[in-house]
Amino acid sequence: MYWPGGSLTKLAYYSTVQHKVARVRSFDHSGKDIDNEPLYEISVQEEITARLHFIKFENTYIETCLDFIKDHLVNTETKVIKATGGGAYKFKDLIEKKLGLKVDKEDVMTCLIKGCNFVLRNIPHEVFAYQKDSDTEFRFQTNHPNIFPYLLVNIGSGVSIVKVESEDKFEWIGGSSIGGGTFWGLGALLTKTKKFDELLQLASKGQHTNVDMLVKDVYGGAYQTLGLSGNLIASSFGKSTTADKEFSKEDMAKSLLHMISNDIGQLACLHAKLHNLDKIYFGGFFIRGHPVTMRTITYSINFFSKGEVQALFLRHEGYLGAIGAFLKGAEQDNPNQYSWGENYAGSSGLMSTSPDVYPMQRTRSGTFDMLEMDRLERPLVNLPLLKDPSTYIPDTVDLTDDAMARKYWLTCFEEALDGVAKRAAASQPDSVDAQERAEKFRQKYWNKLQTLRQQPFAYGTLTVRSLLDTREHCLNEFNFPDPYSKVKQKENGIALKCFQSVIESLDSLGWEERQFALVKGLLAGNVFDWGAKAVSDVLESEPQFGFEEAKSKLQGKGRSLDLDLDGPPHKCALIFADNSGIDIILGVFPFVRELLSRGTEVILACNSGPALNDVTYSESLIVTERIAAMDPVIHSALRDEKLLLVQTGSSSPCLDLSRLDQGLAVLVRERQTDLVVIEGMGRAIHTNYYAVLRCESLKLAVIKNSWLADRLGGKIFSVIFKYEVPCK
Amino acid sequence: MVMALIQESFFLPPLDFSSSQTWKSCRCPACSCWITSFFPWFGLDIGGTLVKLVYFEPKDITAEEEEEEVENLKSIRKYLTSNVAYGSTGIRDVHLELKDLTLCGRKGNLHFIRFPTHDMPAFIQMGSEKHFSSLHTTLCATGGGAYKFEQDFLTMGDLELCKLDELDCLVKGVLYIDSVGFNGHSECYYFENPTDPERCQKLPFNLENPYPLLLVNIGSGVSILAAYSKDNYKRVTGTSLGGGTFFGLCCLLTGCSTFEEALEMASHGDSTKVDKLVRDIYGGDYERFGLPGWAVASSFGNMMSKEKRESVSKEDLARATLITITNNIGSIARMCALNENINRVVFVGNFLRINTISMRLLAYALDYWSKGQLKALFLEHEGYFGAVGALLGLLDSA
Questions:
Q1: Which biological processes are named by the entry's GO terms (chain A) (predicted)?
Q2: First to last CA, chain A
């Protein structure tokens, strides 16, 4: 749980967090006037969930830290605390005395690797490559479903090179004594500069060519004709072989940095070659968040491997030991059997490398920095229908890459923020501190947005999804579990009343007309999205805005639709639903009903937790039950398990097909799903627009954002209807 | 300065073309200069720090030849062979002299001379002043300096250098010297029982069947070659942490001014005061990874602490620098040997001159970390193989 290393202490602890969740419960309607009653009951309940906390602070605060642990250990059965790293020896007595717990020292490397496996498996965008000279310094990598084998090079005072083959199998395959301690120790001797960070600063200002003997110093001008690069270092410190010349501190520090980085890179490449590996993760205090060393190591790996090996870094590298020590201590309730999600609200994020924000980085990462991981109730897995899980990227636009899009979306989220805070406060009229909490939420999310303006890479690749998810996490943080619960309740009620007439009018149409009307209905329903500002403005100002009005808003009418509903029916369709109310009830359900009538089974997937006005799994259960009561097709399908309701495992307005509820995945496989329908901007445009599936898929949405419409070359309320058949 | 003295002793009259000496001439395949193998026979290796010069002194000169030998040629011969030091920096390694060698049908002695690369301009200047070019022999040179100083040789000395490939020269030189032996002794040797200081001893090694071989040349920087046969060899890699790094860091850390001084200091120092050992961190062996307590965990690691920085001596620092550089070369060499599937590693280069500490450490490290699979070999003529190869280049082509 505890990893004192160097001058920083990292602490990992497990806590249960009490927070509010919104629940819906069907009323018993027997004998009541259902027309004037709300559809279902909404209640806010306390729920206890598990959360992993990782905190990092300077050793000088060790006593404060121990007090903190003590407070959080109340009512636990804990008798032993797991500690690793050099400080585990140093602070053993203090810890035992203060906490009255036995300190169990854990092996450093075992902890490091356990921690590494954990973050590689559980944190999307954990891994990045560093590219100083490109627009985006941090190039985040897609999580590969299989993380093994890999090479971990830990550069602490020395260097350890470890090959990790599976969860429990790893091997020390080599090392070097020339590491961070050499840079620090030798650097201190040469420059009389005591601190590691100051040495790095010196190095970043120096010119190593004054100290190193370069190829061009040996060859003169002729190196070009020999195909050599004259700037290669022939001999590190080769020019300082004289007693009568002074060398600047900066130049010596730079030369030392190159010498050590190149040496480590070379050895790492030699080991990678011997073991036939092409990915090396680097960690240790020499690397930790220091752009200077990430740059030199990356250069060295590229040089020595001729581009065949990739140097990779981890966002939470500094926590690996603490996470590992924690996991060692939690083996009876093995956290590896769960899925975890990074909580954006509670985590500080990766710090910037830009010189402008350097002081802030130091104060923040140097004293207090944290990561929070929420334990998810159910394990998350890949959608079995993904064509290639290892290359699947959920997000359509990488905002870290696209400065213009980034600017637009950040501004967009800023502008919408007041409205969101207002709605949050309004959603809890009976709470005395709702206003105050809403303001705190507003402040927190505003700060996150400002951080992201400065450091778009702080939480991995910045995307519309991560912006939306961060907002949801922040809302939850201040106990606004479901600000749209009442809106959803009301809209579901209204829509249900229209269901039968919509079905009647559809049934009166001829086959071809009906198919067209069904798709149009799907799309019209999708107009009702409180997440889109253009829509929420309309909905706020025109309370009577309805299904027919929405249909008339749609652009691009009369387009021919390619969906092959004419051919043989599909075996089973998986539908990811979007909004509550008209969307699900008048758009999706008639479509579901048509599929069922054709003999296609339907899996209807809704979010596990609330996000905006998206329909949740528990709401979908009630809505479906009510529709079944009105409609025999739905009724018998439910009874015969031809219509199945499942949860996605997500509480995001977007959709990550690589992190879906295991139950859903099992069902998809069992029922031999051969059609996937993804509905809505968040799920089909911001994410999954380019997702390639192994079966037919239909992605549809209404563009409810004029900037995005512009970008895609259309108008607001244009329709996206993307029907894809996998190539044989 | 080496050249100052040479200049005094050289007197070069115009070349007499009526000489009856036989000679051949041909185009050099490498740089297409004209190669002529008149005496004097030199081979030159111009490195980043040192110039290595080998000189073949014919001992079978007939009276007739003696008569006809031009005066300046004679004076070069006399000057080089009767001195052991040239100026303040030029040195003839007398103990390396190869006696009664037969080379291209001539019998003679091979001399080994070195001087710092920064004295190269003076060397060329001297050649120019004394009309060395009139001797009509070709000067074969290898090393980076062959390129760097090519133009100076041409403009200042009226001498066209024949530039020969470093790798070719090195490999050729090693194989040749090993084949002729060291005045009846073995050129190649190894350390038996390298892991046991009590029983460790230098023993001859028979390099008759040399392939495959990893050749590690430690000059200012380090080049690592893999040789599979006489004509099949390649550069595997190199590192900038070499002899120049040891000497350069020693100068900065201790204020010493010569390589010899640096080594002398190192021999009296204790690196464990400077380095952080495995046992300093784990209290003993680190069993999980099979690391012995005595292994260095972090070179200069103790120097992170102010108190320890103040308590170490210059000798300790020199020793630690030597150990750091040597261990690193050993570990890169070991990885290359594994990747190339070669188990004999020959270490050459002037870093090893009078440097028993490094040689024993290399022998030890290779043996220990490979669990006895790899053998470190050394050659008596440490840094001169490139120059020997250059000399052979002169004679081969003629």
A1: coenzyme A biosynthetic process
A2: 51
Residues B328, A573: Cα–Cα separation, whole Å: 62
CA pair distance A177, B325, nearest whole angstrom: 10
Q: What's the token pair of residue A597?
A: 């009538």
B375, amino acid identity: K
**Pick from A425, A427, A464, A420: nearest CA to A445:** A420
| Amino acid, single-letter form, for residue B227 | A
In our burial notation (b when 16+ CB lie closer than 10 A, e otherwise), range A20-35 reads: bbbbbeeeeeeeeeee
Establish, for the pair of chains A and B, how many residue pairs have beta carbons separated by less than 8 Å: 203
> How far, in Å, CA of B104 to CA of A652, rounded?
85
DSSP code at position B133 = G
Which DSSP letter does residue A458 get?
Answer: B
User: Whole-angstrom Cα distance, residue B190 to residue B176?
Assistant: 19
pLDDT for the residue B22: 40
Task: Tell me if A182 sits within 8 A of B295, measured CB to CB.
Answer: no
* Residues within 8 A of A (CB atoms), B 134-153 only: 143-145, 147-151
Helix (H), strand (E) at residue A623: helix A617-630
Are B299 and A181 inside 8 Å of each other by CB? yes
Looking at A473-477, A688-692, B280-284, which range is the least confident one? B280-284
Q: List all residues of chain B from 320 to 379 with a beta carbon under 8 Å from chain A.
A: 324, 327-328, 331-332, 335-336, 338-339
CA neighbor of A660 nearest in space, from A694, A626, A688, A685: A688
Determine, for residues A189 and B241 on separate chains, whether the beta-carbon distance falls below 8 Å. Answer: no
- A24-64: pLDDT as tens digits: 887 765 555 556 677 788 888 888 877 877 777 666 677 77
Half-sphere exposure of A642 (CA within 13 A, CB side): 21
Q: Which of A107, A240, A304 is the closest to B288 by Cβ? A: A107
Report the distance separating Cα A570 and Cα A563, nearest Å.
12
Q: What is the pLDDT of residues B123-165, one digit of tens each?
A: 888 777 767 777 767 889 999 999 999 999 988 888 888 999 9
CA distance A162 to chain B (A): 10
Nearest to B79 by CA among B9, B142, B133: B9
**Strand, coil or helix: what is A312?**
strand
